[in-house]
Fold this sequence. Notes:
Layout: H1 2-18, H2 24-46, H3 51-74
Amino acid sequence: MKKILLALPLVAALTLTGCSNMNTEQQRLLSGGAIGAAAGAGITALAHGNPIWGAIGGAAIGTLGGYVYNKHEQGQ
């Protein structure tokens, strides 16, 4: 249990520093995918399905949504 508690801050720090050099488009795609994955997993779990497949589908749709939003913001 102590190893998990020690590893958690390290993983969080690596995750946050890995996103520090991203441009706006990359940030929007990543956040869309992450939000979509969480929503897809949650909805699928509530519907008594396999949350993994919900997360995969949600991530794909969320990334696409982030892409479309980015193009909208750029005026394209």
